[in-house]
Input
Amino acid sequence: MAYSTAQRLGAETLGTMLLLAVVVGSGVMGEALAGGNMAIALLGNTIATGAGLYVLIVIFGPVSGAHFNPAVTLAFLLRRDIALPMAGAYVIVQIIGGIAGVFLAHAMFDLDILQVSTKARAGAGQALGEATATFGLVLTILGALRFRPESVAAAVGLFITAGYWFTSSTSFANPAVTIARMLTDTFSGVRPLDAPAFLVAQFSAAALAFGVAAWLFSPRDGAKTARYSETHDEGSKTTL
Output
């Protein structure tokens, strides 16, 4: 079933907006209810984000591929699964949708709509955390598409849930999310000063993950590997 360009861009805009509303809104709620316990606040933020991602990918995946993420769009551009003009349009609406989602979260909690984050996330360790998170996310998507396409939504939700806890940066793994979170001075924010390092790490890691996946997930020899590949080739042609 084919969807129009307007439908695809609408799905990317709405999906990214709802994703940021979940990320920022659950951060505000988690911090308000945690009584100063940042571990509890992060746990609430984590569960909501992982669950929200799963649902958003399930409902928007058939329309636009449910990228919601310029790093993911870059990976699919490198795979030649999306044309350059459409990829550029995806990135634009992802950023617009992300910012709209932050504003929506602020409005829901009666906060100032326009804010600038003062939350420091600086240092080489944070940048490495973002590179690790983005590399793992893109590799998860490409690996799931190759071998278990029906499991992409669950795999992405679970990886991001884990990433909140095992990466130093709490796993933004998404340039649109990074840009949008500069505009919230809440639990989920990131200072504009720190964002460029995140963005460089995210895009670089996405390109690296594409290269690794292209090598690692393409069987070269061996009858057993070939038989396994043939079993899953039909589903692997599906995008997100």
Q: What stands out?
A: Confidence is low (pLDDT under 50) at residues 225-240. The domain at 5-218 is CATH 1.20.1080.10 (Glycerol uptake facilitator protein). The first helix runs from residue 5 to 33. Residues 140 and 155 are 7 Å apart (CA to CA).
